[in-house]
Amino acid sequence: MNDRPTTVWTEIPVTDLDSAIIFYNKVFSWTMTKEDAGPNKVANFSANMAGPHGHLYPGTPAKPGTGPTIHLAVPDTLDATTERLGANGGKVLMGPIEIPVGRFTYCEDPDGNSIGLFETKVA
What structural domains and CATH numbers belong to the chain? Predict the structure, then answer.
């Protein structure tokens, strides 16, 4: 068995980086901004680069229902985050789904990228 984290970086391709920044900032209460430090402009999920991380980048999203799902932690409650997602152009596909460590909802962002909204169970 591997003791190290298996996921170190995620990238979500979006057709309009500025619009995607607005969507993800509103849904997750983030303050992402566009950065131009690498080969492409990106918007990092957070300034904390320790541990698993990720960003949005200008690209071609997979067709809805065909790409990977990235599960992102909700900033408050699953219900509140799901409501913000719908109000800002996202689509709820299924859930909430209960699992031993919490619950999550399968969704799509406005580009059709599959994202999971994850809420950790409070002990």
Answer: 9-120 (3.10.180.10)
Give the Cβ contact number of residue 2 at 10 Å: 5
Q: Are 30 and 76 contacting, i.e. CB atoms less than 8 angstroms apart?
A: no
End-to-end CA distance of the chain: 27
Tokens at 44, concatenated: 């990092």
Q: What is the pTM of this model?
A: 0.90
pLDDT tens per residue across all 123 residues of the chain? 667 767 778 999 999 999 999 999 999 999 998 988 778 899 998 766 666 788 999 999 999 888 999 999 999 999 999 999 999 999 999 999 999 999 999 999 999 999 999 999 987
